[in-house]
Amino acid sequence: MDLEKLDDLDLLTALVMGESEAEPIEGKIAVAQTVKYRKEDKRWPNTWKGAMLQKGQFDCFKQRFFRPVIIKHDWGNIVWKECKYAAWGVYNDYLRDVTGGRANLYWNPDIIEKPNWDWSKVTLLNKIENHQFARE
Fold this sequence. Notes:
Elements: H1 8-20, H2 25-39, H3 48-53, H4 78-91, E1 105-107, E2 123-128, E3 131-135
Antiparallel strand pairs: 1-3, 2-3
C-alpha cells in the first residue's frame, strides 16, 4: 500500500471511495470537500496529499481498514465513477459547497457515537445520509 505514489486526484478518488462509497453523490462530494477545507486550514498540511495522508485522519487509509479496490480505476463501476466525479469536481473547484459551511470534520454516528474532539469548538453543519459534517 504505497499511497504516496498516487497523484492528488487519484488519492482523493480513493479516499472518497474508501470513506463514502455507499453514500449518495452529495455525500461523496462533501467528503472530498472536507479534505479541501482541511488543506486550506493552517491546522492541517496545506497540500492535498499532506491533508489526506496525515497520520490517523482517514480510516480508509489505515492499515487495518485499507481495501486495495479503492485505488483501482474501474470505469465500469458506477460507484467508482461517482467517486471520481466528486473528487475531480472538488479538486478543480467546480462544485459548490454541500457540507453546510466549509466542514473540515465528518463522522458516521452509526459507527462512532461521538469522536474525541473538543466539542466546545465544533459547530454541527449538515447531515448527509450516514455522515455528519462539522467545522472546528
